[in-house]
Amino acid sequence: MTRSTMIILPLALLAAGVAACPDARPRFARDAEFIFSGTTVLPRAATIDADDVSNLAIVRVDTILVGAPVFARLTGQPVTVQLRDPGRAREGERRVYFTKGW
Prior knowledge:
Helix content is 5%, strand content 40%. It is mainly β. It has one domain (3-99). The chain starts with 7 loop residues before the first strand and ends with a strand. Residues 1-22 have low confidence and may be disordered.
């Protein structure tokens, strides 16, 4: 994995899904720029230099659910996410991430 192909995505929130109706979605889902299903590769780690990785994780982008075309190149790639609840992150688990670019 190369660091030059990574993107930092803070404000990733762990959730099970999003309601189909935009008005019914929670605020974090409405505000997300990039929503994807991903697999945690390594909790408490980053693909970039970071002094504190305690709330970060390396996550592989499995499926893009919402995002501008520029995000398409990230499918299958590891990205660094900042987690709202890092204590719940486990290697190998799949989650849906609601993110904003950093």
